[in-house]
Structure formats: structure tokens, C-alpha cells
Input
Amino acid sequence: MSLRVRQIHPLFVGEASGLDLRQPPDAAGVRALDAAMDRYAVLVFRAQSLEPGEQMAFAKALGPLDLGLRKTGKFPTRYAYDEMIDISNVALDGRVAARDHAKILSNMANQLWHSDSSFQQPAAKYSMLAAAVLPSWGGETEFADMRAAYDALPERLKAAIEDLRTEHDAFHSRILLGNTGYGEEQRKALPPVQWPLVRTHAGSGRRHLFIGAHATRIVGWTLPEGRVLLADLLEHATQREFVYRHEWRVGDLVMWDNRCTLHRGRRFDMSERRELRRTTTLDVGAALEHAA
Output
């Protein structure tokens, strides 16, 4: 079978069918997925119900995998794979974690608009999130198209931000939410990196914003002025016309391009189980001049 995609948002996002993700794609399949991602940036696969090992095999077919914050050694996992990120409210003992559990406090940052692993070089390329257990309400994931958001900026503002660089810090969003329990070793494992504020998407050739909760400041600007501009850009880029809200079903796998989208999770009843598994590829093909 071959990949088929039906667009489900006016600007981006496609519902994909025709593939059994339990079978890792061959070279032609990878090319088809890359082409679809270049066009839609977010692909929604329904009724897949992958086991963890099957999800790992699918992700590895698309590129080397990212450890993200697990590089710091601070985030133990319930899974047999270091590269599988546990997006859940479940503690290591298998029970729903208390609201003041360290995992819950860290995961609250997932409800801020962000691009996975923008705080490292190389950053993330594709993320794949699979739904295993869902709460009775809430817990949706929203995606924002940074290419369409850039296109809609006034020309004066496009010119003003063209050559700016931003610093991205792995711990900025979590510290912002009051979670300050990160030691010197964790900070050294993931030092801040710099990226252009405006980048060119390698697949589509379109210009896009590269912002989000990990962006801490604009290089060469005062901290207040830079953060105000970043806040203004984020407010613009996450207007409803640029946003798709995904309402999860068990067995869904949603795949997105971190280079040109932002995403965030939404509130749910944290006394109920919510278990999703994320695998993420590294953007090893990014031009070195993008980072400092």
C-alpha cells in the first residue's frame, strides 16, 4: 500500500492512510513520508496501536533518535528504550503520579508552546507521539504553523527580524514555571544554543519563525526588549487561524516537523491516566551555520 494524505486544516496538517506503521518504511516509503511532511508539517495516523518496539523501529527508519532532556540523567523511564520519551502522568511504579511529583512538575512545561529539543544542536526534526491510554476529557495537543505565521507578518517586521538570533535554553520553560531543581551537572549537559529567529525550511524552501518556550532572549538585545518581541511573535504565531487542535483517540500516532511548527498539550484531569509515547529524530542535516 502507498501513503495517502487528506488535508484537514486550511493551512497544514494531513490525515494519512495507506501505511501500516508496524512495518518500518523502506527507502521509497521514507521519501514519501518526507515529501508529505514537507507539505503538511503534521501527519495524523489513525488506528495504529503500535507496541513500543514497533514505534522505535518506525522512528529509527526516519533518522537517528534524540534523547532530549534525558541527556541530563535526571529523567528515568518506564520503557526499555532510552530514546522513548514517556509523555504520561504515570510514575515509575506504574501508579498515577501525585500532582507535586517531580515528573508532573517537569511535564507542565509541555503545556507551553514549544519545539522539541530546540535547546540543543542538532535540534529535533520529526516527533512521533502515540496514544496508549487517554483521560475522559482534555489532553488534546495543539500545533501551530510557523511558516504561515511568518508569511502573515508585516513586511516591516519581517525586515526587522531577518538577521536576529535567539538563545534557546532547555531549562528556561521549567524554571519559568517554578521548577528550579536543576543542578550544575544537568545544566552543563545541555548548555544554551543559538539559532536564527527566522530560518528556511529545508524541505519546502519556505521561511518560518523559530521561537517557543525554550527561546530565552535575542542575542545582542537587552533582556526585556528581546523577551517582549519574542512574546509578541508567539502571540501572533499562535492565533487560531494558524493552529490545529488534535483530539486524541487510542491508537493515534501524530508526527510533526519541529523545524516549522510549535505544539503544546492541553489540560486534563491529572487524577486519570494519560499515557503517550514520543520518539523524536535529530535534524542532522541542518546547515551548521544555523547554530553557534
Summary: The domain at 4-284 is CATH 3.60.130.10 (Double-stranded beta-helix). The radius of gyration is 18 Å. The chain has a mean pLDDT of 92. The longest strand covers residues 124-133.
